[in-house]
Design a protein that fits this description.
single chain; mainly alpha; 2 domains; 4 helices; 0% strand
Length: 98
């Protein structure tokens, strides 16, 4: 990263991250601007940074898949809970009829 056209942006980003970690600050919030500048620079020099940009895209897609999977599992769990509640109510009604 320190060898391409985004050397200065990368060094600024790296310094920001180190400062945030040292001061126990939120890295995302503190370094948003530095991260944006680095990303824009990398996009502008995509020929040089292509392997990194591809790896970043794959990682982003994997994270989205994992979030969707977790979201689907949460919805399934809620649906199962709802079904259990319905069965319990039906059971209570059936027992009350006895």
């Amino acid at each position: 990263m320190k060898g391409g056209g985004c050397k200065e942006s990368f060094i600024a980003w790296e310094k920001c991250v180190e400062e945030a970690e040292t001061n126990k600050e939120d890295v995302v919030e503190k370094c948003f601007k530095a991260t944006s500048m680095l990303k824009k620079c990398m996009d502008a020099h995509a020929d040089y940074y292509e392997p990194i940009l591809k790896a970043e895209k794959v990682a982003e897609e994997e994270a989205l898949k994992e979030l969707e999977k977790e979201s689907g599992e949460a919805e399934k769990s809620e649906e199962e809970s709802s079904n259990v509640e319905k069965l319990e109510k039906e059971f209570i009604i059936d027992v009350a009829k006895l």
